[in-house]
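Morning F.,

Quick status update on the modeling queue. The single chain you submitted on Monday has been processed. Sequence for confirmation:
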Amino acid sequence: MTKRNTIITILAAATALAGGMATMAPAQNAQISQAIAAGIVGETASGYLGFAQTPSAELRAQVDALNLSRRSAYANLAQQRGVTRQQVAAETFCAQVPRIDPGEAYQLSDGVWRVRGAAPVPTPANC
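Structure tokens below.
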């Protein structure tokens, strides 16, 4: 299982354990992971997945569902920690930055989509 699949699975499982939405089917995880590897979908500074390129309707629906799961998981963690959901989401993005692989898209807080090359992604100032 790739590290991206692992992250998706952990977030979905955390949401399910917290009483949130049902976990995504493995085929959905695979399609999102493929879209991430292709640079269509990427991590954003907001802590959610976004679209660096125009997705299919099916992929959009799957990413939207995953983002809803993330939102729920962030809200649960925020409540447990006594912080805001946005703080948890930002921390999640900061944890994701070193895991972005070459060829994957990402969006920093300036809103510009980038694709990681051979060099590591620069750590944002808020991380």
